[in-house]
Write a structure and sequence with these properties.
It is built from 8 helices and 19 strands. It is of the alpha/beta class. It starts with a strand and ends in a 16-residue tail after the last helix.
């Protein structure tokens, strides 16, 4: 197996971890990325991501989060760096519409993810800086929190190289990829890479590289993120006094307080307009800014007049059902397609990498939930 050669395309959350696990399982691995790990065009770019186990009923992601938390901890110990900030995650359940949260509780229990079910009175006492209009109760995960995104992508690649992997910054040319007959992988520098296995973990570019097999089953959308300044000398809105939070009502806002003084992060999880991750200009929408400021003033009255410190535009890479894609190419058994993070994939990077590496190595079939055949029914 030490002579089996693999190429992984994409050094983001899914690709970087897949390359690292393939290497640890004994393959000779080359990892490619057009702009580098955690770059500003990537879905894995930016500073922070939420890691939480509350996912509703009938899904695999709560159990995957539990395993991901274990793998993140192992990675931190290996690297001697902190990537997971366990400041807690608070999920606000809407009055009269809490099936999602109710359905989450048994799965959190089964996965062994620490959590508390808090009444409205308990919420008010614990976090008085929040206005609780429309909230009936909440789920609090005290050992969950946020991840450092860009930094951890780079650390995975650093570990991959330190352990003997080859990393190259180069783009892939979309030549004969769909028919699976390409004689080596053509790169933007004019060279070709040949391997026994190929894993394409290209995030929002997956549909462009595979227009027939993936196409619009991965749709990149523009997502605006805002960072507001907290009051001077006041820590009520920092990570020392607030957890990561999600307000799961009609319009789903979420936020991350703090992180190295960057400000109070807030974003609307509603899918934005279609976006080209290569050529799109990353300027936030004025309407999204107004909506974010209106929400901030309502839910966090002490930040009503908070100044806007910075903005960011990232993208989600959405599948029609918001489940990941993990499958072989239908016309090439040696080619794997991995993506469709759908705005919740980053936290699962380690467990997806572990799964994909095992599938590639052992030629096993992934769960039907992640396979391409599900889209044939559309």
């Amino acid at each position: 197996m030490s002579e089996t050669r693999a190429v992984v395309i994409g050094a983001g959350a899914f690709g970087g971890w897949t390359a690292l696990f393939l290497l640890r399982y004994g393959m000779k691995v080359t990892l490619l990325d057009a702009w580098g790990p955690g770059n500003s065009r990537a879905s894995s770019g930016g500073e922070t991501r939420v890691i939480r186990g509350t996912y509703g009923p009938n899904q695999p992601y709560t159990a995957m989060t539990a395993r991901a938390l274990e793998l993140w901890s192992e990675h931190e110990q290996r690297c001697k760096q902190q990537f997971v900030h366990r400041i807690g995650v608070l999920w606000m359940a809407a009055e009269g519409d809490d099936q999602f949260e109710r359905g989450s509780l048994p799965l959190l229990q089964q996965a062994g993810i620490p959590h508390e079910e808090l009444s409205l009175n308990e919420l008010e006492q614990r976090w008085p800086q929040i206005r609780w209009d429309g909230v009936g109760w909440g789920i609090y995960e005290p050992r969950s929190g946020f991840l450092l995104a860009r930094a951890s992508c780079q650390a995975v690649v650093d570990a991959f190289v330190a352990e003997g992997g080859e990393y190259r910054q180069a783009g892939v040319l979309p030549s004969h990829l769909e028919d699976g007959t390409f004689d080596g992988l053509p790169l933007s520098d004019g060279s070709k890479l040949r391997a026994d296995r190929y894993v394409f973990a290209c995030g929002p570019w997956l549909g462009k590289l595979f227009p027939q097999t993936i196409g619009d089953c991965v749709r990149p959308t523009k997502q605006d993120v805002f960072f507001f300044g907290t009051p001077a000398g006041n820590d009520r809105f920092t990570e020392s006094k607030l957890p990561v939070w999600g307000d799961h009502r009609g319009q789903f806002f979420y936020g991350i307080p703090g992180n190295q003084g960057r400000g109070f992060k807030i974003a609307d999880d509603t899918r934005g307009p279609l976006f080209d991750p290569t050529t799109g200009e990353r300027i936030v929408s004025p309407d999204r800014y107004v909506a974010a400021r209106h929400y901030l003033a309502h839910r966090f009255p002490g930040l009503r007049d908070a100044p806007l410190l910075e903005t960011r535009v990232c993208q989600y890479e959405n599948t029609p059902d918001n489940h990941f894609i993990i499958d072989r190419h239908p016309r090439a058994d040696h080619v794997w397609l991995v993506g469709g993070g759908s705005g919740h994939g980053f936290k699962h990077g380690p467990v997806v990498g572990e799964m994909v590496a095992a599938f590639v190595l052992e030629q096993k079939e992934p769960d039907a939930l992640f396979r391409l055949a599900r889209f044939a029914k559309r």
